[in-house]
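User: Can you write out an input/output pair for a complex, sequences first and structure second?

Assistant: Here is one pair. Inputs:
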Amino acid sequence: MTATSERRLLTILLVLSAITLISWWIGAQHGQGEFRLNGPVTFGVLLIATVKVRLIIGEFMEARHAPRLLRRVADAWLALLVSSLLAIYFIGAGFHT
Amino acid sequence: MTDAGAAADCARFAPPDERIRPGDAAHYVPGQPDMWVFVLVEALIFASYFVIYMLHRVQDPALYLRSQERLNAGLGVTNTLILLVSSWFMARCVQSSRERRYDVAFRQVLFTMVLGLLFIGFKLIDWSRMVSEGLELSTNEFFSFYYFLTAIHVLHVLIGFVFLIVAAYQLRSPLRRSQEIVETCATYWHMVDFLWVMIFALLYVIR
Amino acid sequence: MRAVAVQAAPVLPSGLFERLAWHWRYNPKLEFWIAWYSMVFFYNLFGVVFVGMTRVMPPPQPWWDTPRVVQWFNDNHNGLLVGFGIIFLVSGLTAACNALIGYSMRRMSVSRAFAYSYIAIYSVSALPGMLLTAIALTVGAMRPERDPELIYWLYDMGFMCFVGTMGIFLIGTLVWMIAILIDKNRVLPKWFGYLNICNLITEFVVATSWVFKKGVFAWNGAIAFWVDTAVFAVYTVAFIYLLRKMIKREDFGDGPLPA
C-alpha cells in the first residue's frame, strides 16, 4: 500500500501552479495590442495543459498506483484529444495563410 | 495504526489479479471503479465539445482572437489556481482519511468546498462583467462556446458539491467513514479540476 | 437465511412456438419479459419511424424560410402521416419501460416514494418526448394547402418540443440516480447511477436550442443534437442491458426492502 506524502502533493501543486502561470505568460506576452494567430504559443499552451492534466490524473487521482489498464486508457484519451486539437489547429491554420 | 487496522486496509486495497513485480507497490483503483467509468464517459463527451470548438475556431480565427481579447485572463488564471488548490486539499483529505486522521480530513474537505464556492463566485463576477459589456451567449460564435463550456463546467462543480458533502458526511461520524466513498468523491472533484484546465487553455490562452 | 430449493434446470421443448408456449404457461418472470421485449420493440420502432419514415432525426434546419419548410412537409408527407400514425398506436408501450424502471426501484432498499414518483413523472414523458412533436407535424402535413405561415409555426413547435423539452427527463433521471446510488441491494451497478449524471447534463445542453437557429447549438447542431443523442443512445442501451440482467437475477429476497 502506498501513500502519497504531503511533501510530494505540495511539490505537485507548486509545479502545476508554476506552469499555469507560465502558460498564461506565454499567451499574454504576445498580446501586445491585438491577439494574433500564433502556432508556437498554441502548441506550448496545449503541451502545458497536457502535462497539467497528466499530473492531476497521475498524482491527485492516484492513477500512478492504479492497474495498467486505467493508466493506459487515461493516457490514450489525453493523447488522442490533444493530438486531434493540434492537428485541427495546424491544418486549419494552413488554410488561412 | 494497529496491525489489524493495517491488515484490513491492505485487504481493502487488494489489487485485482495483476502480477506484482518486486518493488512495485500494490496496484489499486482509488475509490469505486464505477466512478472511473463515469469519468471516462465525461472525458469523452467534453473531448467532443473541445474538438467541435477547435473545428469552428479554425474557420474564423480572426473573430475568435478578437473576442478572446475581451476575456479577463487574470480571472481565468485565478480560477485555475483556485481549483488546483482545491484538488490539492482533496488529495490530502484522502491521505489523511487513509491515515485515520479524520478531523484533519474533515477540515480539508471543507477547505475544498470553500474554494469551490470561491470558483463559482469569481465565475459569476466574470460573467456579470461581460454581460454588462454586452457580451452574452448569442453575441458571436466564440462567446456561445465560452458561455456554454463554462456554464456546463459550473454545473459539474455544483454536482461536485454534492459529492463533497457526501464525503464530509462520511468523515464526520465514526459510524461511517468509508474510505472508498471518500476516494470516489475525490475522483469526481479531480475530474472537475482537469476539465477546467483544458477549458482554460482552449478559451483563454491559445492563440 | 435462504429457503430456496435447488432444482435442476427445466427441460424446454424444442421448436420456437412450443418454447414460447411453455414460457407463457410456466415462466414465473413472464410479465418482466413481456415488458422488456415490449421496451426493446418500442425503441427499435421509434428509431425506424423517427429516422427512416418521418425524417425527424436528424432534424432539418431551423433557419429555413417558409417556402423551404413547406417543401419539407410536402417531401415527407406520407412518411410523416404514416410514421406518426404508428407512433400514436404504440405510444402506450412506453408504460412497459417505465414499469420496469419503477420495479427496479421497488427492489432497492430505498423508500417506495422513489419508484412511485418516477412512474408519476414519466407517465407524462411521452408528451414532450414524442407526442407533441407527432401531433404538430402530422397537423402540418395533413393539409398541404394550409397557410404557409401556419405550417412554419407547426414546424417550429414540432422540433422545439422534440429537442428542447427536457424538464421531465431531468427530474426523473435525478430520482432514479439517487435511488441507485443509495441502494444497498445492488440492483443496478453504481456506474449506471453515475451515468445518469451524463443524461442529466444533456437535458441542460439542449436548452441552447431555444436560443440558436444556426450552428452547433441549434436543434440540429453538433452539440445540441448529435452529441446529446449519442449520449442518450449509450444511456438507453446501457439501461436496456442492465434491466435484462436484473430480470435474470435469482438472488432477490435476500436484501432489505422498505416496509
